[in-house]
Write a structure and sequence with these properties.
Number of domains: 2
Order of helices and strands: HHHHHHH
Distance between the termini: 28 Å
Number of helices: 7
Membrane topology: Multi-pass membrane protein
Family: Belongs to the chromate ion transporter (CHR) (TC 2.A.51) family.
Organism: Candidimonas nitroreducens
Radius of gyration: 19 Å
Shape: globular
Subcellular location: Cell membrane
Keywords: Cell membrane, Membrane, Transmembrane, Transmembrane helix
């Protein structure tokens, strides 16, 4: 069941969501889309709260498939029901896919020029900055309790430094997180 947006801003229609997701998909190069989604729906439009967004991001990352596609479906459904979910999915996938095919054709013809490599390096740097920004926002929201901080640090160490398989780390950390939170809520 879709929830009301977090502010008094006009209720988004499925068409408007399609256009927003299309713009985001067409203007974000090299990743970092979660940062764009945060800015668009939480910071600029105030349609969902930061906490809701981070909960949705956690869910999107836990589900199979591309995280941004999952987020687009989740945000779309949250704001406009089933039509919003279809609009979010279609907007984030279809126009960028068409553009990527056209861009691939163009880059194939320009690959021999050094400027094309410089442009790709710049896009990659921007994507890293957006991803780092999103990580900082998420880290700020981690409850300042010992167990969540330990889980966050251990996940970074296991995946980032030890290069353990992401799937197994996430499954193990999720089980620990759920058990700890269940126990904490039960004791309240």
């Amino acid at each position: 069941m879709p929830l009301k947006p977090a502010s008094a801003a006009p209720h988004p229609t499925a068409w408007r969501l399609f256009l927003i997701f299309s713009r985001i998909g067409l203007t974000s190069f090299g990743g970092g889309l979660s940062g764009w989604l945060l800015r668009e729906f939480v910071q600029d439009r105030h349609w969902i709260s930061e906490e809701e967004f981070l909960n949705g991001l956690s869910l999107a990352q836990a589900l199979p498939g591309v995280n941004v596609k999952n987020m687009a479906i989740w945000i779309g459904y949250r704001l406009a029901g089933a039509r919003g979910a279809v609009a979010g999915f279609s907007g984030i996938i279809v126009p960028p896919a068409i553009f990527i095919v056209l861009l691939g054709i163009l880059f194939a013809s320009l690959a021999r020029y050094p400027l094309s490599n410089i442009a790709l390096a710049g896009a990659a740097a921007a994507a890293i900055g957006l991803s780092a920004s999103m990580a900082i926002v998420a880290a700020r929201r981690v409850p300042r309790r010992l167990i969540p901080l330990l889980i966050m640090v251990s996940t970074f160490v296991m995946v980032g430094l030890l290069h353990w398989p992401l799937v197994w780390v996430v499954l193990a950390e999720a089980a620990v997180s759920i058990a700890v939170e269940y126990r904490r809520l039960k004791s309240e």
